[in-house]
Amino acid sequence: MAIQTEEWLAQPDQAVRDKLIEVAQAGQTITYSEVARIAEIDTANRHFAVAVCRVVERIDRIEHEAHRPLFCPLVVLKKSRKPGTGFYDLARELGLLVGDDDEAVWKRELARTHAYYRTASDSRR
Predict the structure, then answer these.
(1) How far apart are CA 56 and CA 13, in angstroms?
(2) Ranges of the chain whose pLDDT falls below 50
């Protein structure tokens, strides 16, 4: 019997996952600083985005194992509204980053995450 995702996550990670599901269902993105607040990461630390990446990566490894799309395409830099290197590193590691056009891969994975959670019932979460 598979363990439910929620049982695998610490409380702050679960809060982040819940917010990322809301963001995906709304067809939106969220900034690193917004995720940091939910995960209780100090944004005054100039390396807070690395800590955010670690939280989202922990969640995404579980999502990937469960054959669900990643949440990291939703998390974007405030100025560019695009993901940081964490998305591309994880996508490359998981075999999702193929071809030369990184932005096309990001857009594809973002659309995949939005579509999945717009149509997901509670039983698929």
Answers:
(1) 8
(2) 1-8, 122-124
